[in-house]
Amino acid sequence: MAFVVDSSDWNFDDCGRAQISERVEGFLSAIDTILSRGEEVWIGSDLQTKEILQDFTLWDLFSPESGAGLSREICQELSAILNAARYYEDEVDGWPPGFEALNQVSIGGEELTANLDVLWAFCQRNIRSACALIGLTKRGVYPVSSNGVSHDLHWVNSEEERLGFWRDAITVQGDSFAMLERLASHAYPNLYFPASLWRAGDQFGGGYHSQSTELRKYLERLDSFGAWVFTAPPPDENFSLNQSSGTGDPSSQLVIRRFACLGLDIVPEKPNVAADNDCKRARTITLGGAELYCHWHGRLQLWANRVHIHPPVPQSGGKVIVGIMKDHLPLPGD
């Protein structure tokens, strides 16, 4: 799994200096985020050899004669990325099946075109290996076809688009508890998943597949809004971009209502659960030397299958903790 830079989207013939700088800066920001998360980026040799501004190539943009007007800082950062880039043509483990045989793809129903970058991602998808394209202006999901086969491929630039790709990748690569473990930190970067969660394995009644759709809905909304729900000051029940998290101490009832507004059934355990040592212990995890009682739980089904969470703490880096996923934990009297 990796991202491939779509060199066909690098064309500045109709751009002014400010627009060129804006697009390159956006690209650098996207690359920086991807690399900071330990994710891979591939590029093809075409990116550095094709003319992208009249008769100037990418390296020519660094010259004052190009008229691109890129700042010294942008040039240095772009140069560092290019010099350290991983070229998919040089993959020692070989090319994906079909890459040598195919030479054209259709993107979004348009005419067939020669695009090795898109073809590489397409052939990766053929073997159920998720792969996305990084564009400058192109973004979204497009049907891509070649030789009678079609796949939906992602063009990403923003954080929202990257998350959409990784969440789709869980399904592309065979939706399973093991795949969720493998990709959770990429698909839900604002949530903390302790190692104990994965060691416990799939403990859902009916198995992971029976809960996958509902579970991933919970994880997506917790990733986007969970920290805000637990930390934003009263009285607002609905998320607002104008609000900041980490400044309030909302009541349990307000937290419940906020989750309800997000379409999530998340509530705290009743006091008698914490009063029972066995019940409390079953809901407690250890993180960074601290014992955390995960009494907030999302009810995937009315009668079973719970996702036990804990509000953000320093030990989790300020992220909501997904501590336990299980069909049923003991209750007083069981």
Structural notes for this entry:
By secondary structure, this protein is of the alpha/beta class. The chain folds into two domains: 2-159; 190-326, no CATH class. Helix content is 37%, strand content 19%. The protein is built from eleven helices and 16 strands. It has helices at 17-36, 46-49, 72-83, 116-126, 159-172, 177-187, 195-200, 208-231, 252-261, 271-275, 277-282, and strands spanning 2-5, 41-43, 51-53, 56-57, 86-87, 106-107, 131-134, 140-146, 149-156, 191-192, 266-268, 284-287, 290-293, 296-299, 306-310, 320-326. The strands form four sheets. It has a seven-stranded mixed β-sheet with strand order 5-2-1-7-9-8-6, sandwiched between helices. A five-stranded mixed β-sheet has the order 10-16-15-14-11. A hairpin with a 2-residue loop joins strand 8 (140-146) and strand 9 (149-156). The radius of gyration is 24 Å and the shape is elongated. The two termini are 45 Å apart. 32% of the residues are buried. The model has no long low-confidence stretch (mean pLDDT 92).
